[in-house]
From TrEMBL:
Origin superkingdom: Bacteria
GO term, biological process aspect, one: gamma-aminobutyric acid catabolic process
Residues of the Aldehyde dehydrogenase domain: 24-484
UniProt keyword annotation of Transmembrane present: no
Cited PROSITE patterns: ALDEHYDE_DEHYDR_GLU
Stated name of the protein: Succinate-semialdehyde dehydrogenase / glutarate-semialdehyde dehydrogenase
UniProt-recorded Gene Ontology molecular function terms: succinate-semialdehyde dehydrogenase (NAD+) activity
InterPro entries: Ald_DH/histidinol_DH, Ald_DH_C, Ald_DH_CS_GLU, Ald_DH_N, Aldehyde_DH_dom, Aldehyde_DH_Superfamily
Coiled coil: none
Length: 489
């Protein structure tokens, strides 16, 4: 009863409207859509359903606020971000429960995401003070070269449902630091975390119109008119490669600055000299974080032949002990998948692998009852050609294959159109160097199953996207370079 009462309280406390020019407004026409608890399939509440007219009003507010926000003092931006960092941490428990209710992940993971999300505000509060240009003499000494960094301008953010707060702060933080205004379209399935974050930023002193939030059941109704509007100057999207291609093509019509963090197919490579227990711990983290619904999730496990059977059985034993259930239960380690469509996809991928000869060591089914649950699953061996070796699983399924040589491991790891993240376990320093140099991925976890860090440049290569978020590189995505040639005295 206490959890149910707390759940009602946190849901009721969140604004259910659009945030435009500092005001909470109903959608044009009064449209609303339901937000569901994926652990029960029941509606939590309804929020405003933005139209294209609402989206354009949000962009107008951002455009109107851009000039004054660009002139604001770096200290002001840094202080707003620092206040938001402190307030997010102070409200971590309440915001974690809200996230668990709409997204499904266990409370401990939701709380960890809130703290991770806050780190982007802390990091970029410092970056706001380091937007350096420079002055130097030209090579022929006839002039001075003055280089300044200026904000790109109004930005459109389209964020996913799997990390509804962190994917917001990872974009909002550098935009605030750089002096850019924003229109944010959060995922239809998890709008409450975004609305709560927007309210928190307003409380921290973010001026009206700098951040505008439009929740909508149709992403295209919001994004298409904005991408055509000459007032928009940048798009930042996190989501599937398929949608990313479409948005990039639309953004190309107006030569918008684009940042895309897209799909992944992460290999988890374990060599025969690896610390076995550390590799198992890393595998559980890399696979089961966020119920496997992460672009950084280990998607393919490639294990040296002498260890493969032992590794598969050890991982199966670890996953067998993870309790499924509603994420608000502190004993639960595995929550539901986000919706029935995602569960069906996971089930189809497992069924395809089994039909081709894969052996199920644990899991492999969707339990009876309400919610969109799927059991943690280990498959070994998995034959070549199984769809889940080439498609992003986005669920708690670990397919394992054995390899005979370092060259084979590298070749299989790179045999993907994606290049977001890879994981490598070895105690041989020379091998680590060789393998990391040959892997075609933007990020590599060496003897660890987690790469995400606010101070690191997050992003991939190939079909996994363009640009970087976080780290020193993150704020550069929101800055234009202006050069002035000064006549020498």
């Amino acid at each position: 009863m206490a959890v149910a009462a707390a759940a009602r309280e946190v849901v009721e406390a969140v604004p259910k409207a659009l945030l435009i020019a500092g005001e909470w407004r109903s959608a044009t026409g009064g449209g609303r859509f339901a937000v569901e608890d994926p652990a029960t399939g029941e509606a939590l509440c309804e929020v405003a359903d933005a139209t294209s007219s609402d989206a354009l009003q949000a962009l107008a507010a951002a455009a109107d606020a851009q000039a004054s926000w660009a002139r604001s003092a770096p200290n002001e931006r840094a202080e707003i971000l620092w206040r938001a960092f402190e307030r997010l941490r102070a409200r971590a428990d309440e915001l974690a429960l809200l996230m668990t209710l709409e997204m499904g992940k266990p409370l401990a993971e939701s709380r960890a995401e809130i703290l991770y999300a806050a780190e982007f505000f802390r990091w970029f509060s410092g970056e706001a003070l380091r937007l350096d240009g420079y002055l130097k003499r030209s090579g022929d000494a006839r002039s001075r070269i003055l280089v300044a960094r200026e904000p790109v301008g109004p930005c459109l953010f389209v964020t996913p449902w799997n990390f509804p707060t962190a994917m917001g702060t990872r974009k909002i933080g550098p935009a605030i630091a750089a002096g850019c205004t924003m229109v944010w379209k959060p995922a239809r399935l998890t709008p409450l975390s975004a609305l709560a974050l927007a309210e928190l930023l307003s409380e921290c002193g973010l001026p009206a119109g700098v951040l505008n939030v439009v929740t909508a059941s149709s992403a295209s109704a919001v994004t298409e008119p904005l991408l055509r509007d000459p007032r928009l100057r940048k798009l930042s999207f996190t989501g599937s490669t398929e949608v990313g291609r479409q948005l990039m093509a639309a953004a190309g019509q107006r030569i918008l600055r684009v940042s895309l963090e897209l799909g992944g197919n992460a290999p988890f490579v374990v060599f025969d000299d690896a610390d076995f227990e550390a590799a198992i711990e890393g595998a559980v983290l890399a696979k089961m974080r966020n119920i496997g619904e992460a672009c950084t999730a280990a998607n393919r496990f490639l294990v040296a032949e002498p260890l493969a059977e032992k590794f598969a059985r050890a991982l199966a034993e670890r996953l067998r002990g993870l309790r499924l259930g509603h994420g608000s239960d502190p004993k639960v380690r595995v929550g539901p998948l986000i919706d029935e469509q995602q569960r069906t996809k996971v089930r189809d991928l497992v069924d395809d692998a089994v039909a081709r000869g894969a052996r199920v060591l644990v899991g492999g089914r969707a339990p009876e009852g309400p919610g969109y649950f799927y059991e943690p699953t280990v498959l070994y061996p998995v034959p070549e050609g199984a769809r889940l070796l080439s498609e992003e699983i986005f669920g708690p399924v670990a397919p394992i294959r054995a390899f005979a040589s370092e060259e084979q491991a590298i070749a299989e790891a790179n045999a993907s159109e994606y290049g977001l993240v890879a994981y490598v376990y070895t105690r041989d320093l020379d091998r680590a160097r060789r393998v990391c140099e040959q892997l075609e991925f933007g990020m590599i976890g060496l003897n660890q199953g987690l790469v995400s860090n606010a101070g690191a440049p997050f992003g991939g290569i190939k079909q996994s996207g363009v640009g970087r978020e976080g780290g020193n590189e993150g704020v550069r995505e929101y800055l234009e370079t202006k050069y002035v040639a000064l006549a020498a005295p």
